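Deliverable D4.2, example record:
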Amino acid sequence: MKKILCLISILMVTFSVIGCSSSEVDSSKEQATSKDEKQVVVATSVAITEILDRLGVEVSGVPQTSYELPESAKGATEVGSPMNPDMEIIKSLNPTDVICVDTLGSDFEKQFEENNINADFYNLSNVDGLKETIAALGEKFNKQDKANEILDEIKEVENKVNSNKKSDDKILVLFGAPGSVMVATDKSYVGNLVELAGGQNIFSNAATSFTTLNLEEIIKLNPDKILVMTHADPEVAKKAVSDELSKELWQNVNAVKNNDITYLENGYFGMSANLQIVEAVEKLGDILYE
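Output generated by the structure prediction step:
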């Protein structure tokens, strides 16, 4: 009986050791798998690509664009234009994260859902959205310190312009694209920048970022300056705006009478808020307080 009890004890100890060893092996495998899993990030807009670059996040997919992308994005796969990303190319990269802007609306988001691509959408339609996006991406990729550095830069320029005098000039911001001209309200990024720089956007407290031209209302509000932002093909967009402003009724507007019309640089003043905000606000200051 003693021999039997002794044998049982030995077996129990042996199985216990084997179980622990097996558990340690399984745990090691899980850790190795976690370490081996490569993060594959796709950015579908230039602004998002630039933010991820500043945060130190490597991107494997970038938008096809005529703008110069950060050095860190060189060699990344082009995944189509920001307004028409190629879902097949994105899927071929097996991304762990697809980062987009929500500018193009729910139909754009639906494309990703229909293609079973898990994408995150961020708001870059105004300055507050830019700051929220930087903070959210910093947290998502564990880059909070670098995110805070960028946010401090933006806060510094905000404090600087807030201490400046306000402009008495009434500002109209026009959005020009090939074949169309619209009004950019204070809800748009550029319209928001005008107010940040101390200007009076005549279309404030709007419900949407852009609205159709209402020339009668514009004549009534009578802006002193017109700022023009362009989209897609800048030269074609400029011609669309120029043709619109040459119409007879526009000659009743002070800004047109005095030829106080400024075509903004496309790289600094686009549809999406971006990291050129510091330079953009300084350029607006030169225009408003020339």
